[in-house]
């Protein structure tokens, strides 16, 4: 029976696998870099920064340039001067001008037919600099900055939640692997009990019933082993999916351990440090800025503008430049704007109510996480005490069976109790590590 005690001691020993241990920090780093949600969240931050850059351009002049050229088969403007109605003095003056030109330039031919705009080109530009737009440009830029801050806060929130999920799955897989080691030790123990019972049966010390009980228990353990392996495989695939790491079969993770923690009072949680609270604050500020932009639509708008160009549309190159100061005052906008402002006031109040409500819910959530951590720590201590009692119970039952004072059924029942308490200890440590992660995240 000494061999049975040696096998029994294996229940407290971790199952050793010939593989490299994957630490928790590696899984967390993989999740930050490879997880699809994290990659999309980083893209959202960059997109918000691009929007901020777009709004920033509104502070600078808007410049437009245009150019065109044309050629017509026939002149667009054509007329005969001689057919125009004229006074006698004007007619004589026109004849004198043509006579002077023919005498001055005898080799040239001068026609009284005038053709214009058969071909030409024109190009110019426009510059508009807003001086005052009712505060809409400034409010829009501030709103775009809030968009960047909101995207960063959402990224921090997504990262925190993701890392909590990854660590929870990590310790789940680690706990299942620990249960595998426990189950393997139980299986080895049952194999030894089977050999002992078989030898005792052949010696006529026990009945065949002891053999059947051991075989039934071995069959039950095989079923549990199948369920456990399926659970390990699915949980490992989930961990790989969360971390963006390719699934390559079983992974050996860090062993579960109990960490001593000095629990801080629940009222020391700083709600203001949580990304959710920052998002609620940004939501209120965004609604206030939207109200400011709506108000700006009813205020005057002042802008400086300049127009310049150069053309030869009339067979004579010429250029010009015009500077303007424009003032636009919406006269009928106040009626609609007053309704919009009331709408924004209601939305601002709703966002403030939501901020107050969710802040209180976050306080309650912090207290709940703290309670879960304390409860799981106490449960670990209770299970450790129960484990010592279960081990002692199994040891005594084993001695009683050896001396013939206990039946195989009673021995196997004590083994089931020990196995269950061992798994309860594992579950308690998984709960503790999961609650500890949340406690640390909410207590920063």
Describe the protein.
This protein is of the alpha+beta class and 444 residues long. The chain has one domain (2-76, 117-442): Outer membrane efflux proteins (OEP) (Up-down Bundle). 64% of the residues lie in helices and 13% in strands. The protein has nine helices and eight strands. The protein has helices at residues 2-9, 24-34, 36-56, 88-104, 136-202, 208-243, 275-296, 334-402, 408-442, and strands at 21-22, 62-71, 77-80, 113-116, 119-132, 252-253, 301-311, 318-328. The strands form three sheets. It has a four-stranded antiparallel sheet with strand order 2-5-7-8, with no helix packed on it. A hairpin with a 6-residue loop joins strand 7 and strand 8 (318-328). Helix 8 packs antiparallel against helix 9 (408-442). The longest helix is centred in the C-terminal third of the chain and has 69 residues, at 334-402. The protein is elongated and about 155 Å long. Mean pLDDT is 84; it is low at 1-18.
Structural key phrases:
alpha+beta; Outer membrane efflux proteins (OEP); four-stranded antiparallel β-sheet; 64% helix; 13% strand; elongated; disordered N terminus
Please give a quick description of this structure.
With 444 residues, the chain is α+β, with helices and mostly antiparallel strands. It has nine helices and eight strands. A hairpin with a 6-residue loop joins strand 7 and strand 8 (318-328).
């Amino acid at each position: 029976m000494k061999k049975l005690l040696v096998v029994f001691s294996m229940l407290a020993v971790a199952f050793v696998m010939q593989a490299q241990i994957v630490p928790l920090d590696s899984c967390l780093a993989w999740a930050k870099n490879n997880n699809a949600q994290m990659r999309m969240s980083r893209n959202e931050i960059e997109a918000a920064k691009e929007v901020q850059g777009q709004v920033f351009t509104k502070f600078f002049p808007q410049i437009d340039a245009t150019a065109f050229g044309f050629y017509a088969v026939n002149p667009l403007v054509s007329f005969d001067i001689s057919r125009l109605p004229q006074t006698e003095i004007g007619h004589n003056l026109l004849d004198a001008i043509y006579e002077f030109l023919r005498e001055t330039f005898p080799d040239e031919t001068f026609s009284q037919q005038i053709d214009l705009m058969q071909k030409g080109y024109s190009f110019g530009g426009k510059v508009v600099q807003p001086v005052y737009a009712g505060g809409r440009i400034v409010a829009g830029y501030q709103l775009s900055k809030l968009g960047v801050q909101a995207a960063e806060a959402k990224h921090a929130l997504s990262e925190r939640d993701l890392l909590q999920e990854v660590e929870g799955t990590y310790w789940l897989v680690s706990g299942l692997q620990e249960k595998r080691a426990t189950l393997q030790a139980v299986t080895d123990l049952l194999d030894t009990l089977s050999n002992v019972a078989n030898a005792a049966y052949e010696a006529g010390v026990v009945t065949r019933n002891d053999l059947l009980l051991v075989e039934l228990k071995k069959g039950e353990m095989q079923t549990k082993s199948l369920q456990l392996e399926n659970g390990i495989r699915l949980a490992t695939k989930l961990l790989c999916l969360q971390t963006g790491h390719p699934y390559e079969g079983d992974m050996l993770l860090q062993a579960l351990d109990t960490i001593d923690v000095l629990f801080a009072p629940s009222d020391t949680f700083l709600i203001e440090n949580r990304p959710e609270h920052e998002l609620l604050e940004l939501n209120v500020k965004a609604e206030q800025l939207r109200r400011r932009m709506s108000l700006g639509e009813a205020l005057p708008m002042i802008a400086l503008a300049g127009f310049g160009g150069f053309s030869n549309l009339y067979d004579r190159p010429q250029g010009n430049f015009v500077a303007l100061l424009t003032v636009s005052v919406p006269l009928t906008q106040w009626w609609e704007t007053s309704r919009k402002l009331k709408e924004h006031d209601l939305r601002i109040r709703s966002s403030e109510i939501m901020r107050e409500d969710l802040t209180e819910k976050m306080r309650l959530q912090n207290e709940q996480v703290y309670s879960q951590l304390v409860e799981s720590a106490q449960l670990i201590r209770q299970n450790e005490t129960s484990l010592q009692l279960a081990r002692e119970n199994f040891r005594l039952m084993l001695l009683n069976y050896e001396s013939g004072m206990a039946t195989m059924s009673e021995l196997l029942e004590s083994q089931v109790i020990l196995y269950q308490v061992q798994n309860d200890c594992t579950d308690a440590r998984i709960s503790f590590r999961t609650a500890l992660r949340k406690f640390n995240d909410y207590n920063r």
